[in-house]
Amino acid sequence: MIAIAGPNLPIDLLAATGRFEGALAFDPDRATPRASGWLESKFAPWARPLLESWAEGAYDDLEHVLFSRADDTSQRLYYYICELQRRGQLGGPQPLILDVCKIPRDTSRRRTVAKLRELADQLGVGASALGEAIARTNENRRSSTDGRDIPVCLLAGTPPPDRRLHAVIEAAGFASAGSTLTQEWLDPGPSVDGDNGDPFAALGEQLHARPRGPRSFADAESVLARSLQTTQASAAILWRIEEDEAQCWHLPAEREALEATGIPALVMTRRDWLANDGAREEIAAFLEGVTR
Amino acid sequence: MSQSVNQRSRKTLACTSEATAFQKAFGKELKRRVVDEAEPYAIVQADTPHELFHAMDIPIITNQWWSAYISAKQLSGRYFDAMVKKGFPANSCKYCSLGLACTLADEPETAPWGGLPTPTVLVARLTCDCIQHVFGLWAKELGSEFYPMEAPAWEHKEVDWFAHSKDAWDRVYQPDRIEQMVSEMEDLIALLEERTGRKFDPARLERLMERINEQEGYIWEAARAIGEARPCPVSIAEQMPNTMIPQWHRGSDWAVAHAKKFRDEVFERIEKGLGASRNERLRLMWIGAGVWHDPGFYQALEEKLGAVFVWSMYMPFAGPAYIRDLKGEPMEALASRVASMNEVLHLPPWMNGWMTSEAERCGIDAAVILLPPDNRLSQSGTNLTALSLEEAGVPVLRIDADMVDADNWDHNRMVGMVDSFLHEKGLA
Which among A135, A161, A177 is the end of a domain? Predict the structure, then answer.
């Protein structure tokens, strides 16, 4: 079995293995005594509970865990886990990394495709199996849009650990939009070109070009504006945590994008990932004042 | 706000003042070329292929050097405040973003050189999530173009990479990573040729690479001698400028000659039994970037405790990170140097493997690690390195501070922490 620990990964390919178990599960609120001794403070906060669970043997039934170079914590954690295993301080599955390159340049696109082929070889996935998996996943992509009959509030920014903030939004009478961390990792991204004769190239190019995530070269404010549009949001919360060191650079532009829409928006920065800092109450108070 | 006394470091080598004088003159020359003459130039990260620019005679301003320059003028707090006022978060990575902060502040009256003019290009390797955003914004603000370079995943892991980096670089640094970097360097050369009208000459690069090998060979010889010598002939406050200043000009006649002169002066001091301190009793290792705004920190405990910082990464890094057998492939050799310069200093197993080996080579009694609170990249690898060092019998003190943020650095408190740590460990 294989699981993932990071975003921008080839869900279609993993589905084609027939051994995909999804995203690594962990309790975000758990104590992390060992992991905190190994990881420094600026790791994204999901890394510590995940590593603590790994050290306890929670993932011992897996063969592989796939990390992503499209996210700094994911790729850095890969090296730490490899080293801890080398030193005999950690057991568990074999860590793998997919070298997803995001620079909008041909050399980066080609490398992503080449590395995807290598991963497929390693996992025993051939072209026809991948082609079939792409067709199935494309079908899921098409059917995943849902209609809502109540106003929508978009939760953008850092993916929260679970639905704790979504629940506050829903309790205020809004439908919530925006991914949790696990949903972000399992997001297969936009449709893959099923007519491309080379499914590895088609999927690799999609991975390279996907607009979301910390290493994306897409315009962050445009991505936010598009999300507002596609979800038809009538309120927005831009929530970023203390450890977010990438997308936070676009905060001024994102504020402008929010103001330009005229949608009521709450911007929350440098927040606690576990939302133990009064975020729930602030969100509830904000939505209380939004006309539905 | 804490107070920093910004103590000056004591210098004992003639070549130290020569290096700083050269750099000062170079700063003026660079300003003349970039600001007064409006020559095409580039803003680059330290871990990018400077050699290409040198070979094409295109001036470069290194982000880290520019940050240190701003920091040394005590302007970092002012510009970070200005950046926050423009809506950027106060917890942003400070080491990478001070140059951007200076540009965003838009204060020609306070900025060094009145601020930077528009460069031809900005170049950075994507070694973290942050840098592409900083350089992208900076390029936009300066009306220029950002040329990012990948930092590809490194699956081939050799813990003793430093023992093979000179002659087996094609294996150690992973062939497909080298190939990727070569392709990107070729694209960068094409961009530079098009934008500047200057031509790239492969023979000139090869000659430059040979000269860099010679230069770094002198530094590496001196580093090995310092590791063996008792007492340590030169403190890290002098090792740093004599390594780094020539390294900014690597392969130039001055840089090669200066490296040789420095080596000779180190040898001479060893021969005469001269030490950086008169009573060396403890040999300390400094892990992290230099605290540019308080160089006197490193020598503060020499007199009181005989505690001498004998090791920082800059000087011993010259050997394994720079010297390459060219094998008739200078571009590939250069790619192997650039493709891992940051990784070996910040990722396991390379970082801890090398630093533990260096601690043993240099007879280190204790190590002090800098942990900048808002910089994942600079923090990276430090905990596992500390554990490796402790397993090897080297006590480690971790200091939470930023190397360019003078506002959060208190000289007396930091010196006091090292003092207490050495006493607690029974070393002083």
Answer: A135
For B116-125, B297-306, B409-418, which range has the lowest pLDDT when averaged over its residues?
B297-306
User: Structural domain of residue A246, as residue ranges?
Assistant: 150-288
How far is the alpha carbon of B101 from chain A, nearest alpha carbon, in Å?
A: 12
Predicted confidence (pLDDT) at residue B295 exceeds the cutoff of 80: no
Whether residue A41 is found in the same domain as residue A89: yes
Number of inter-chain CB pairs under 8 A, A vs B: 120
Q: At B212, is the secondary structure helix, strand, or coil?
A: helix
CATH number at A125 reads: 3.40.50.11890
Q: Looking at the structure, tell me whether residues A156 and A209 fall in a common domain.
A: yes
Q: Both A68 and A173 in a single domain?
A: no
By three-state DSSP, how is residue B344 classified?
Answer: helix
What count of other Cβ atoms lies within 10 Å of the Cβ of residue B395?
A: 18
| Interchain contact, B347 vs A79, CB within 8 Å | yes
Structure tokens at B161: 């990479």
At B16-53, the pLDDT tens digits run 999 999 999 999 999 999 999 999 999 999 999 999 99
Show residues of chain B in contact with A98, CB under 8 Å. Answer: 153
* ipTM for the predicted complex: 0.95
Whether residues A200 and A130 share a domain: the answer is: no
Instruction: Please tell me the distance from the alpha carbon of residue B31 to that of residue B37, in angstroms, as a whole number.
Output: 8
Domain harbouring A171, CATH code: 3.40.50.11900
Contacts of B183 in chain A (CB under 8 A): 107
Residue A143 counted as domain residue: no
Asked if B92 and A248 come within 8 Å (Cβ–Cβ), the reply is yes
**Closest C-alpha to B129, from B146, B151, B145, B102:** B151
Angle between helices A127-143 and A199-209 (to 10 degrees): 50
To the nearest whole Å, the CA of A25 is away from the closest chain B CA by: 24
Q: Which amino acid is at A68?
A: S
CA distance A30 to chain B (A): 21
Find, among B253, B261, B270, B295, the residue nearest to B406 by Cα. Answer: B295
Query: Quick check: B407 pLDDT over 80?
Result: no
- Flag if B133 and A269 touch (Cβ within 8 Å): no
A116 and A168 fall within a common domain: no
> Which residues of chain B have a CB within 8 Å of the CB of A86?
157, 159, 349
Residues from chain B that touch A105, judged by Cβ atoms under 8 A, are: 184, 187
